[in-house]
Write a structure and sequence with these properties.
This protein has 320 residues and is α+β, with helices and mostly antiparallel strands. The protein is 19% helix and 34% strand.
């Protein structure tokens, strides 16, 4: 990749790359060396990409660099023959003129013939080759969908609330344990709580039972969704220090960031099983609304390594 492309990758403009100075629009006598501007923009990108959770704080910049790395590696594996991209568009239209729902094709419903049409960006109907491949899907209250053609790629999406959904517990290299405690550190049962009760949830990540050796895995994400009848007490926002027994139980963790939301808490940390004791994370909770609810399962997974993941089922709870 030449220098021009590298400077564009960090956000420099064409003029900042090819011209020696940038002239101030108001004070035309003021000139700033573009070499300084280029270095400054490179430093800003480097600082963003150095963040622990880069995809949360600098998503666009991270994906640009990831694309560059992938293209560079592909080119290396392809004997440095280069990478060809096809940016062809319909006739002489720019991308802004292509139907906004898709750069490739969109669907329209034909009421007269009760069918779905596939329309290209230039407004012409797509006639699929009917030699190979048939994809069908139907269910109650839904007409059969059939797509016929060669070299088709089909994405299926659905939304809804599952009825009595239960996922099996999972433990691959790591596992999760969950306990509940009163304010003084005594273990309690939360399946039935009195409104106004205050308590703590402990989520503990440990090596799986079938793991014998030592391992270290960075960038683990742990998520727990809270029932709507319970309320998360944001101790960090309220500037309330945790009790000493919580401090002692969390002294062994490598927490990098805690994301506290209205209905869930996400923990991001590095994990090792050096002492086999695991790492504990706590959520301060209050029972606030009477009713019966479902506590969702807790999930832990390696953000960039699917070989480390765990799921612990939830259960029914009640606030009286």
């Amino acid at each position: 990749m030449n220098d021009y492309a590298k400077w564009r990758l960090v956000g420099c403009t064409h003029k900042e790359i090819v011209e020696e100075y940038t002239i101030d629009a108001i004070n035309t006598e003021m000139q700033t060396p573009n070499s300084e501007k280029r270095v400054e923009k490179a430093k800003i990108i480097l600082e963003k990409l150095s963040k622990s959770h880069v995809y949360n704080v600098a998503n666009d910049e991270a994906f640009k660099q990831l694309l560059w790395l992938n293209v560079t590696e592909y080119n290396r594996l392809n004997a440095q023959n280069g990478v060809k991209f096809d940016f062809s568009i319909w006739e002489n239209k720019s991308l802004e003129h292509i139907y906004p729902k898709s750069k490739f094709f969109h669907t329209e419903y034909d009421k007269e013939h009760d069918t779905v049409l596939y329309i290209r960006g230039d407004g012409k109907e797509i006639n699929f080759d009917e030699k190979d491949g048939v994809w069908e899907y139907s269910e109650e209250n839904m007409k059969e969908v059939k797509v016929i053609g060669d070299k088709l790629y089909v994405n299926q999406y659905w939304e809804g609330i599952p009825i009595n959904y239960t996922q099996s517990d999972e433990s691959k290299n790591i596992k999760i344990e969950r306990k509940f405690y009163g304010d003084n550190g005594e273990e309690i049962d939360v399946k039935s709580l009195i409104k106004g009760s205050s308590f703590y949830m402990e989520l503990k990540v440990l090596p799986a039972d079938d793991v014998n050796g030592y391992f270290y895995q960075d960038n683990i994400a742990l998520t727990q969704i809270i029932p709507s009848g319970w309320e998360i007490e944001n101790s960090r926002l309220l500037k309330i220090n945790p009790p000493q027994w919580v401090v002692e139980k969390t002294s062994n963790n490598n927490l990098e960031y805690e994301d506290i939301r209205d209905d869930r808490v996400n923990f991001f940390f590095d994990f090792n099983n050096y002492n086999k004791q695991g790492q504990s994370f706590f959520i301060k909770l209050n029972a606030v609304t009477k009713g019966k609810y479902n506590l969702s399962g807790a999930k832990a997974e390696g953000m960039y390594n699917n070989e480390y993941r765990a799921y612990l089922n939830g259960f029914s709870v009640e606030v009286k």
